[in-house]
Amino acid sequence: MADESWKIPMLVQELAAKVQQPPSRYVQPEQYHPVSLAVGAEKQEPIPVIDLSRLLAVDGADDEGSKLRLALQSWGLFLVDNHGIETSLMDDLINASREFFHLPLEEKQKCSNLIDGKHFQVEGYGNDPVASKDQTLDWLDRLHLRVEPEDERNLVHWPEHPNSFRALLHEYTLTCKRIKDRILRAMAKALGLNEDYIVTQFSNKAPSFARFNYYPPCPRPDLVFGVKPHSDSGVLTILLMDKDVGGLQVLRDGVWHNVPSSPHRLLINIGDYMEIMSNGIFKSPVHRAVTNAGKERISLAMFHGLDPEKEIEPAAALLHEKQPARYRKMKAKEYLAGFYEHFCRGTRFIDSVKI
């Protein structure tokens, strides 16, 4: 029987405690070394910041809406102030996830994303899937959990320790859902669409996933990515960043920009579905995570997707004779299948969907 042990790499947290140099499977090809893809000049244009309270206010909404449209056209992402999430909830949830990642391996494995120790599934604790022997691996472990629809949560994958984890994640999920709906209505207005157009694309079967990313210290940040360059697949991602340790970078006009770690600010970026629905007016940003030699880093990404049977296509109201559809229509489940295949190769599926 063929040896398929390459499909199940060691958990990176365990690996990092044992090695002085990263194994070759984690080292990027020379042309993609993080050190050779350095960020731009010292004085970079800052990441756009949107004040959510102004975006929703009677006064100031138009100005903030214009800022939102410009941010999504030129960056595909923005930082959010005055989002309404209690700072204590943000801190408590990140601290609880840190406590989980620091538990003994045997305890964490109760939430494993492997069936019978060898068959990968999306949900649970562990590595991302490995599609081929020559796939370059990322330097992180993750806990990936379906949070919506609520009645489809697989609680067997949700940590029981620390005891506060489940209640904190439930509360955070509800607050993110409110923020998502508000942002999507503002995006629809910025596109000149009916305010509820994007929100109504979400059925009661639309999935949302919470992904806790744990990046252990890496002995060679110049050779290894925390996460390789990619865009997100869904409609919207809400990211809660480590408030002390940076590492996220975004590509804009061929130049990599550092996203500053900013305590209690959220980072929101659109995904490929939203780029398609906007017919390319908004851009799904390519981003990556670099590693750190001395400190661990934790982040929480909340991915908001669409019902797998939902057809993704440019909004009809945005199309006319001089601006035809720039993307093929495709079911969400078909897009996801192509997306993950390309992600493993370090390429973008959305490029193959363009007309």
UniProtKB/TrEMBL annotation:
Single annotated GO MF: metal ion binding
Q: Which domain of life is it from?
A: Eukaryota
Secretion signal: which residues? none
- Print the keywords alphabetically: Iron, Metal-binding, Oxidoreductase
Q: Which residues form the Fe2OG dioxygenase domain?
A: 206-306
The record's annotation in InterPro entries points to: DIOX_N, IPNS-like_FE2OG_OXY, IPNS-like_sf, Oxoglu/Fe-dep_dioxygenase_dom, Plant_2OG-oxidoreductases
Any Pfam family hit: 2OG-FeII_Oxy
Q: Which family does it belong to?
A: Belongs to the iron/ascorbate-dependent oxidoreductase family.
Q: What is this protein called?
A: Fe2OG dioxygenase domain-containing protein
Q: Give the organism the record lists.
A: Urochloa decumbens
